[in-house]
Structure formats: C-alpha cells, structure tokens
Amino acid sequence: EVALMMRWAFDYIQQPKGSSVYLRLSTRVIPQMERLNDDWQDDALRGGYWLRQPAEGAEAAIIFTGAIAPEALAAYEMLLDDIPGLGLLNVTSPDLLHREWSLRKASRWTGHPQDACHAETLLSVLSPSAGLITVIDGSPGALSWLGGVHGMRVSPLGVDRFGQTGDLQDM
C-alpha cells in the first residue's frame, strides 16, 4: 500500500494542479499481506477499500486506518463467527474520503448534484441499520463521521485525550 501511495504522490505533486501530499507513516513493522491481484488499488487511491468484503446487507463492519491494522484484522477474525458477513474496511485516506463526501453534500445547494462519492459506494453494501466500529491510533473523529454517510450507528475507538499514550493492548 505504501509503495502504491508513494508512486501516486510523487506523480501528483508534479502535476500542474497537484499539491502537497501528507503520508502518515509509522515506525511499526507490519507484515504485508500477499495480494492475489491489483483489484484493490483503484479504491485504495480513492481513500479506502474492503480488505475483507462484507456480505450484501451485512449488519456490521470494522473500519480502520494506519498502524492499527494488525489489531483490526485480529478483531475481524475473532468476530467473524459471531457476526456473519462482517466486513473490514481499510481507510487509506480519511481526508480524501471526507473531502469527496463533503463536496457531494455541498452540491445539493449548488444545483449541480454529483454522483455518489466513494464513501457512499463503499458503505452501500451494508444494511442501512448496520453498525460501524471505527479504529484509529489517533483521534476517533477522523473516522467517526463515516456513520453520517448513510446514517449508521458508530462506535469510534481511538485516542481521545491529548497526550494519551500506552501500549497497543491499552490503546
């Protein structure tokens, strides 16, 4: 994922209408999963992709970003038997997802409605009453807004106090 993002970023910042790119990296070593194909790449560059595709009409999804990926994957594996169809969404850029969603929402006032944004498309496979668990090693607000895309319930997990620290299990 990082290699894909960096290739895209180096090209984008050199474009006439390009801009700076912020990559939130970690010193944590995370084993990379084997990929069977490149189908995930376009969605990853748009802000997120299903690491584990939910069943149509699934009642829940875990949504994560960043270095907390191994814990999100472990939680998914633990809950899969209890929550049939559970999905695992990897948000590669909360900024891109939110920016596109905000433009879509604002378009209702301009008279130029836009097509569904990527966040709407990603979450549309879930039941309208689905619950979302968002997980980030930062402010939970960075992902909790995803509940507003389709009016879904959200349980946002993350660092919720300035200066909060601890080991991975505590966090």
Short synopsis of the structure:
The protein is an alpha/beta fold. 35% of the residues lie in helices and 20% in strands.
Can you walk through the features of this model?
This protein is α/β, with parallel strands linked by helices and 171 residues long. It is 35% helix and 20% strand. The chain has seven helices and five strands, in the order ααββαβααβααβ. Strands 1-3-2-4-5 form a five-stranded mixed sheet. The longest helix is centred in the middle third of the chain and has 17 residues, at 94-110. It is globular, with a radius of gyration of 16 Å. The two termini are 24 Å apart. 26% of the residues are buried.
Topology:
Layout lengths: L1 H11 L28 H6 L1 E5 L5 E8 L3 H11 L7 E5 L2 H17 L7 H6 L2 E11 L4 H4 L2 H4 L2 E5 L14
Parallel strand pairs: 2-3, 2-4, 4-5
Antiparallel strand pairs: 1-3
Q: What order do the helices and strands follow?
A: HHEEHEHHEHHE
Biggest sheet record: 5 strands, mixed
Mean pLDDT across residues? 90
Strand fraction band? 15-25%
Shape: globular
Low-confidence stretches: none
Percent of residues in helical segments? Answer: 25-40%
Oligomerization status of the protein chains: single chain
Distance between the termini: 24 Å
Number of strands: 5
Rg: 16 Å
Q: How many separate helices?
A: 7
Neighbour order of strands in the largest sheet: 1-3-2-4-5
Query: Helix- and strand-based class?
Result: alpha/beta
Question: Which descriptors would you attach to this protein?
Answer:
20% strand; alpha/beta; 171 residues; five-stranded mixed β-sheet; 5 strands; single chain
